[in-house]
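pinging the channel bc i need a second pair of eyes. not urgent but kinda urgent?? the chain im working w is below, pasted from the shared doc
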Amino acid sequence: MLATIPASVLSGITGHPVSVEVHVSVGLPTFTVVGLPDAACREARDRVRAALLSSAVKWPPGRITVNLAPSGIRKEGPGLDLAIAMGVLVADEQLPAEALADMAFLAELGLDGRLRAVPGVLPQVRCIESGAIVVAPECAAEAALANGPLVRAPSTLQELISALRGEEDWPDPPLPGLANPLDEAADLADVRGQHMARLGLEVAAAGGHHLLMIGPPGAGKTMLARRLPGLLPPLDEATAIEATMVHSAVGLDLPSSGLIRRAPWQAPHHSASMIALVGGGSRALRPGSISCAHGGVLFLDEMGEFAPQALDALRQPLEEGVIRVNRAMAVASFPARFLLVGAMNPCPCGELGQPGMCRCTPLARLRYARRLSGPLLDRFDLRIHVGRPEVCDLFDAPPGESSAEVRERVDRVRAVARDRGVASNSELPDDALDQQAPLDPEAKNIFSHAIAEGRLTARGFQRVRRVALTLADLAGQAPPLTGGIVAQALFMRTEPVTVAHDPWSLPNVRP
């Protein structure tokens, strides 16, 4: 007899519907899986057989053939185990086909018959058109986010079979947890001193501007960066769904509520490869760290130690907010709109500027500075030099503003940006700047000098203009942008080449 069970598989962060066709016939006892299965999918024959026997269900003694249609899509992972098991039972007439009508199945099976979670449940459920879907209890909250099929979440295969036969009621799925989207975030009040760096964090959060911090070891660059997610507003519905789909596809932990509401945080090690950052692979295309940071912060500590090719691969997604991965056998697009924060030392030893402390040769300093290409540096709107805090700041200075106080100003600026039709000022198109951020004569004069001296490119000019707009919004100043605001924005875009002489020197802004 033949049975067809709806299911789905994952490709990148996109789900594809699959029909699991199971045929049981008389013959030598065999179990064959066809339809481009990978190794994990072919091993389903052993897991399914053990799970059915552990659930006190008879295993068919004949020839079993499983076809995963359409055959042109490669099937990966153990997520089809449950669908195969249901197909075997229906094809062997141990379950009536009517009991499974308009129902899909998506779960891995343990040898004891327990239903186990699989990655990428949300995008896989979104592509299924059945009226109900059966998943593992751990995936119930995530599957419910699709707002599609009715979610069933039995714990074991025996519970599922009893419910399908009408012997027992369907078990209630676990209730989703309630999580505060801003809990567990490090507080900015812990930072003592570092007034310019704190301002840089506030401007970066308010306007969505990329931030580069340069300073010696122990200055607090990492501590500052870890407090940036606490300044960002909760994710909107569309971004939260996209971020949840990416995290689900990669297999990262999701909050108890199922939906990611707080800005994600990703901090890959400097030994990460280009594929680990941007995503990819030979057959199974997986999102990289930049997609896992979608809607949040990507922090690159020790940025000068990253491979230059890996860093330059960030240039396109920084501009477009999406990464397109092309391979010979697959193509995938992953969302990648994130706030990039980099931290690096002024030289390999980190002591440049301290009299008698730097041990680096001029050639080593030059090679270190060239790790960051000019086009990548040009995409950093804010470049802040972070010095070691003063002793009086560590012991006697009162605590600074908390993250909650700063977040109020950030939310106000973000609300103004939404009135302009964008999520943040950094997303304003160039043709809208003349209307939203006009310049007064003094501001035009400052920009003219900066461009004539080669300190600003055409792209840098527009980026500084957006930063100036954010500063004006924080100060409550209406357009046009004044010379003082533009000078402050230029002051916060210090050229890193000045570090070769003095890491704390800032270029003069001349009107």
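so The longest strand covers residues 14-25. and The CA atoms of residues 102 and 333 lie 31 Å apart. — does that match what u expected or am i reading it wrong
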